[in-house]
Amino acid sequence: MKFILQIFISFLLLFISCRQEIVPPDNPAGNINEPQLTRTNFTYTFSINANKITKTIVDNTYLNTFKSRIYTVINGHSSGSVEIIIKADQNNILYSAVFDNDTNGTFTEIERQQPEVIIINLNDFTGKLKVTLTDIE
What we know:
Layout: H1 2-17, E1 36-39, E2 43-60, E3 67-87, E4 93-99, E5 106-111, E6 117-135
Antiparallel strand pairs: 1-2, 2-6, 3-4, 3-5, 3-6
């Protein structure tokens, strides 16, 4: 009986010590100041868990649509600001917004022009940011 108890405790310790934390996809919680980028045929998603970061990110969206929606969420904001700019191929500004506090999520639709480039300016920003640009045609 004592031998079975020792084996059981050994297996229990083995399983407990091997457990690793699993961070679900699209969750920037584990990586500080490391942006996460996801692209599909119909969406562009940028997220970051930032700690006093000052950086400008310029990226192509590769979305082939003339009707899209931008959704922005900021949680845990404690300093700085975020500026988001979306431009068309002619360098026309389709969308521009500055955020300096938490948001419950903001939706804006962009019509009649294709969103080619997204620019995200982080200025001494601390918080969790997620920006999603979606094709709604």
